[in-house]
């Protein structure tokens, strides 16, 4: 059984793209559970150096409530394992098209880590559909459903994901999943059938957690936590950090 297979009391809220300790303080105060830290995302607006990744991971741990997640397009398992160990990060999100062999190598190198593999939906079809079972056999703990744009862009595109398309992919998997793809506080009703699925474990947000200037915005994060009923939503009892 997956390490993430037990149903938590509430789904988690992961917010991507923190680049400063102030960003992390905002997320911690507003009710986020996980902070996505980018490394190995060429041209990404939130890209961090290895040293910056390590420093921000430490800052996330220091909040006592945020769990850092390494979000990456890198495919070298040895390099990723070394980064994760050095930064004390135990959640790794493979956000590009890394093959199942990369997942398997990471599982051998980091047996206690939570490995998150993104499944990309483009025009309603999952690009990794033929590989889903191979990813599961390789040691994936959690899938993340996200959209790819018509021009091939992936990661924090803000492009909405349709509920029937998401559920079609979920039906082909056996693992818990997070939901991304243009998630906002106002999209909870539209995605209610996905959120009601017994293997739904949380949401992953970037654009929907920002103000019109692109800055991480505490009111937006609080609204997401409250509307989606996530683990640290305002008004809920304090809990420890979730593993996902």
Your description of this structure?
The chain has 244 residues and is α/β, with parallel strands linked by helices. It has a single domain, classed as Aldolase class I (TIM Barrel). It is built from eight helices and nine strands. The protein has an eight-stranded parallel β-barrel with strand order 1-2-3-4-5-7-8-9, surrounded by four helices. Strand 4, helix 4 and strand 5 form a beta-alpha-beta unit. The longest helix has 14 residues. The protein is globular and about 40 Å long. It starts with 11 loop residues before the first strand and ends in a 16-residue tail after the last helix.
Features:
244 residues; TIM Barrel; 8 helices; eight-stranded parallel β-barrel; alpha/beta; single chain
Q: How would the blueprint of this fold be written?
A:
Blueprint (H helix, E strand, L loop, with lengths): L11 E5 L4 H10 L3 E5 L11 H14 L3 E6 L4 H11 L3 E4 L5 H10 L4 E9 L2 E2 L5 H7 L3 E6 L15 H8 L6 E3 L12 H4 L4 E6 L12 H11 L16
Task: Give me a quick take on this structure.
The chain is α/β, with parallel strands linked by helices and 244 residues long. The protein is built from eight helices and nine strands. Strand 5 and strand 6 form a beta hairpin.
Percent of residues in helical segments?
A: 25-40%
Which geometry do the CA atoms define? globular
Per CATH, what is the topology?
TIM Barrel
Strand content: 15-25%
CATH class: Alpha Beta
Number of domains: 1
Mean pLDDT: 90
Q: Which runs of at least 5 residues are low in confidence (pLDDT < 50)?
A: 1-7
Biggest beta sheet summary: 8 strands, parallel, barrel
Number of helices: 8
Query: Quaternary arrangement of the chains shown?
Result: single chain
Q: Could you give the order of strands across the largest sheet?
A: 1-2-3-4-5-7-8-9
Structural class designation: alpha/beta
CATH superfamily: Aldolase class I
Alpha-carbon distance between the termini? 14 Å
Q: Any idea what the radius of gyration is? A: 16 Å
**CATH architecture descriptor:** Alpha-Beta Barrel
Strands, count: 9
Helix and strand string, N-terminal first? EHEHEHEHEEHEHEHEH
């Amino acid at each position: 059984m997956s390490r993430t297979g037990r149903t938590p009391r509430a789904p988690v809220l992961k917010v991507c793209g923190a680049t400063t300790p102030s960003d992390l303080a905002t997320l911690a105060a507003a009710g986020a559970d996980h902070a996505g830290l980018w490394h190995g995302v060429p041209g990404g607006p939130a890209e961090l150096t290895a040293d910056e990744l390590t420093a921000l991971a430490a800052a996330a741990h220091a909040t006592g409530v945020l769990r850092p997640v390494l979000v990456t397009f890198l495919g070298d398992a040895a390099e990723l394992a070394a980064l994760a160990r050095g930064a004390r990060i135990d959640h790794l999100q493979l956000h590009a098209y890394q093959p199942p062999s990369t997942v398997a190598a990471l599982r051998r190198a980091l047996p206690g880590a939570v490995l998150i593999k993104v499944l990309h939906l483009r025009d309603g079809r999952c690009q990794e559909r033929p590989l889903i079972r191979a990813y599961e056999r390789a040691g994936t703990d959690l899938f993340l459903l996200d959209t790819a744009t018509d021009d091939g862009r992936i990661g924090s595109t803000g492009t909405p994901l349709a509920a029937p398309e998401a559920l079609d992919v979920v039906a082909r998997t056996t693992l818990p999943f997070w939901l991304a793809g243009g998630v906002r506080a106002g999209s909870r009703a539209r995605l209610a059938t996905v959120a009601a699925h017994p293997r739904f474990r949380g949401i992953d947000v970037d654009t929907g957690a920002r103000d019109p200037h692109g800055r991480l915005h505490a009111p937006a994060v609080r609204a997401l936590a409250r509307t989606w009923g996530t683990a640290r939503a305002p008004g809920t009892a304090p809990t420890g950090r979730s593993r996902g």
